[in-house]
Design a protein that fits this description.
The chain has two domains: 85 residues, no CATH class; 213 residues. It contains three helices and 16 strands. The strands form three sheets. Strands 4-7-8-11-12-14-15-16 form an eight-stranded antiparallel barrel. β9 and β10 form a beta hairpin. It starts with a helix and ends with a strand.
């Protein structure tokens, strides 16, 4: 009997019909019922059938969706109260993301120097890159702490980045242990007779990102989210890599006058598990006075892993 009464009341409220029996409800009851989906109604009915007997008194049934709590309190046989409560958003959410994109460079032309030598032109700036092959990869573990209703959060975590700078000229060489960054555009196979398939320099960084984020839903099931913040990193390794024909690989490890620290504002815009990102560093790629002022800009896509 009580089940039929509650089910009839639910359907009456959803269809806009007046109630046939007097029930005590707070002012949010109608809004609550209207907002309940078909699946939630089914869940309410299942819980009522499971929990309530004909003579049940002083019984409470709680139904929860992702955002709200709906509590049905059975006072007597045909008297009940339904209350809608906002669920508290999670204090902390966690996410892991991969970043795949490209490196490009912005160089202060007034600081660029080129000196001709017998080997080839020596320069104090990063030679022209093959942008399609200058790949940036990063992996990031972040924790978001609730600020406003679970939709505005502050994020921080740990991040590891690998920056590949692939040179257009495969005969480009970087010179170790120099007072200033020195790249040599070797004059081809007559001077460097080893056939070469690629030449690049790779830098690895570890750091901490801090950002302010917005998401369309509380918790970790939001569809749209955006973050604006800054990433501080420390260079842990730099090396050149020359791949010769036949598969032989030659590596040289040095700092190549690159800056030990990295500070970069960034913006991420995500929908679902994918998104776009861009980072524009405030710091110079090279140490002060040891190379032409250069900013390495990254942009690409993000993939959510958890």
């Amino acid at each position: 009997m009580i089940q039929k009464t509650i089910i009839a009341t639910l359907l009456a409220l959803l269809s806009g019909m007046p109630l046939l029996k007097a029930q005590t409800m707070d002012t949010t009851s109608v809004d609550t019922l209207i907002s309940i989906t078909d699946s939630l109604i089914s869940e309410v009915i299942r819980e009522i059938k499971k929990e309530i007997k004909d003579e049940a008194k002083d019984l409470k049934v709680e139904i929860k969706d992702g955002i709200n709590e709906v509590e049905i309190e059975i006072i007597e046989r045909d008297t009940y109260r339904m209350v809608k409560r906002k669920r508290k958003p999670k204090a902390t959410i966690e996410e892991t993301r991969q970043y795949w994109g490209y490196n490009t460079q912005i160089i202060n032309e007034s600081e660029m120097k080129t000196n001709p030598t017998q080997m080839g032109d020596q320069s104090n700036f990063l030679p022209e890159l093959s942008n399609a092959k200058s790949i940036h990869f990063g992996i990031e573990q972040q924790w978001g702490f609730n600020l406003i209703r679970g939709k505005v959060r502050v994020f921080t975590g740990i991040r590891y980045d690998i920056h590949n700078y692939r040179f257009q000229n495969n005969y480009t060489r970087l010179i170790q242990d120099q007072p200033e960054f020195t790249a040599v555009e070797v004059g081809g196979p007559l001077i460097d007779p080893i056939p070469v398939e690629k030449s690049k320099v790779v830098s690895n960084y570890i750091g901490i990102p801090v950002s302010l984020g917005f998401q369309d839903k509380p918790g970790d099931n939001s569809k749209f989210s955006a973050k604006v913040g800054v990433h501080a990193g420390y260079r842990v390794r730099t090396h050149t890599k020359i791949k010769q024909s036949g598969g032989n690989v030659e590596k040289q490890f040095d700092d190549f006058n690159m800056n030990d620290f990295y500070l970069s504002p960034f913006v991420n815009v995500n929908y679902g598990d994918m998104g776009l990102y861009m980072r524009y560093p405030l710091t110079n790629l090279f140490k002060s006075g040891q190379g032409a002022s250069t900013q390495s800009v990254q942009f690409g896509i993000t993939l959510k892993m958890s």
